[in-house]
Amino acid sequence: IAECIQLVFVCLLVLASRLRPLNRTRRLRVALLAFVAIALIAAARFSAHWISPLASSILRDWLPAALMLVPYWQLGQFFTEPDPATEACLAQFDRIFFRWLGVQPARTRIGISLAMYLELAYVMDYPLIPLALLVLYTTGLRSRVNFFWLVVLSATYVCFALTLFIRASPPRILPGYKKFQIPPTPVRRLNRGILDHASIQAITCPSAHVASSLAAALVLLGVQPWVGLIFLWIALSIGIGTIVGGYHYVADVLLAAAVALLIFAASLCMYQ
């Protein structure tokens, strides 16, 4: 299932690059990234010819985690400039949401301990998916790996697909956006460094960070409730951290949660 989802999505992005007014270099990058993903998936598919069938099967279980971000980097080639109208709408929704909560971000100072926790939660999204997969392996639930990838990849890639039509910079770099007062911490510097050097310098809307972490938590809740609750707490912390840290707009997080829940519910129906 994971191989099919990833193959279809990277190829669809190649097709989309032909339909969008992108220059030759950007289109070539989209195609090269797709080629890398296809080559690795094909190599894993036929790896049983040179390694044991069990090792080949394990490799195919874990490879999707390594390839999850390939479509994300493909999407980066589609982003040429933000749409000010979209950014204004997202920022306006944030203002309405915070006003409804009775919070004024620009006047709200986040304590250093809470800031460290939320920044750490945000960075936890990167290892969270492999950790969830490890839980399935170590608890004798490897049979649920297909279902796990169906939910996680579908939720993540729906967010990626919608990003093609929503061009916006993250609120942390948006001029005039009223941000929370966050003290500088080593973890925040780490997050900024990762985003400055490895991100596409645009948001995914809905937030793929939130969708993937919540999707993984929902799967674990169904098979290992106590572990699932821990992952759910982390996923909720990631959602709050993305908003407070200025990494995503409120709408990104709320829509991502809705996507993860809908994908999970639809996948349950398919497997019943």
Q: How are the SSEs placed, and which strands pair?
A:
Blueprint: H1 2-19, H2 24-45, H3 53-67, H4 70-76, H5 84-101, H6 112-123, H7 125-138, H8 145-163, H9 186-198, H10 208-223, H11 225-244, H12 250-271
Helix pairs in contact: 1-2, 1-4, 1-8, 2-3, 2-4, 6-9, 6-11, 7-10, 7-11, 8-10, 8-12, 10-11, 10-12
Provide a descriptive summary of the structure in words.
This protein is an all-alpha fold and 272 residues long. It has twelve helices and no strands. Helix 1 runs antiparallel to helix 2. It starts with a helix and ends with a helix. The mean pLDDT is 94.
Distance between the termini: 16 Å
Rg, nearest Å: 19 Å
Number of helices: 12
Q: Could you list the spans in which at least 5 consecutive residues all have pLDDT below 50?
A: none
* Multimer state: single chain
What is the global morphology? globular
Major beta-sheet overview: none
% residues in beta strands: under 5%
Q: Tally the beta strands.
A: 0
> Overall mean pLDDT score?
94
Structural class: mainly alpha
What is the H-and-E element order?
HHHHHHHHHHHH
Helix content: over 70%
In short:
The chain has 272 residues and is mostly helical. Helices cover 72% and strands 0% of the residues. The two termini are 16 Å apart.
Quickly list its features.
272 residues; mainly alpha
